[in-house]
Amino acid sequence: MTRVAAGSEASGAGLSHIDSTGAARMVDVGGKSRTDRRAVAGGTFRTTTEVIGLLSDGKLPKGDVLATARIAGIMAAKRTDELIPLCHQLALSSVEVEFAIADDHIDVTATVGTSGQTGVEMEALTAVAVAGLTLHDMVKAVDRRASMDGVRLLEKTGGKSGSWRRE
User: Model pTM?
Assistant: First the structure.
């Protein structure tokens, strides 16, 4: 196994979750300023036009698919620190999970906010991923080939590095 020390050339500008010996560590954010932070993530749930029709007509066997997926995404954002190693526990001020329905897919978007010392990118990404997995669980009886893909950060604001937006 190769270890990369923080700040070494192999790690570019340095990996904040790696100490000088190459061991994983949780970043100390105690000295950072509290700022308003927001992150938006997205992903695409792919299924069939037939499933989209059943969903739109409220005829899927497991009930209100979008409401269930929305709640799952919100709950996941709130518990990201329990799912992703080295993530900080955050007091989230807002979590929104939205769905845009198309002919053969659903675009999932999560927007997460906090006022704190570290960002909420992982919380937004986790919300999208879990909402998509929940959609899969809700439709698997009628479409086993459904998939969730393209989970990615779309934008973030706040913190020392400021704002960023995917082009």
Answer: 0.86
- Residue 123 is assigned to a ligand binding site: yes
58-62 own/partner pairs: CB under 8 Å, 24+ apart? 60/138, 60/139, 60/142, 61/141, 61/142, 62/137, 62/138, 62/139, 62/141
Domain ranges of the chain: 34-158
Residue numbers annotated as active site: 137
- 86 marked ligand binding residue: yes
Q: For the domain bounded by 34-158, which CATH number is listed?
A: 3.30.70.640
Q: In one letter, which amino acid is 49?
A: T
Residue 60 is assigned to a ligand binding site: no
Of 113, 108, 146, 145, nearest to 127 by C-alpha is: 108
> How would you write the pLDDT of the chain (167 residues) with one tens digit per residue?
444 444 433 434 555 777 777 777 777 676 677 889 999 999 999 999 999 999 999 999 888 999 999 999 999 999 999 999 888 899 999 999 999 999 999 999 999 999 988 889 999 999 999 999 999 999 999 999 999 999 999 999 998 888 999 99
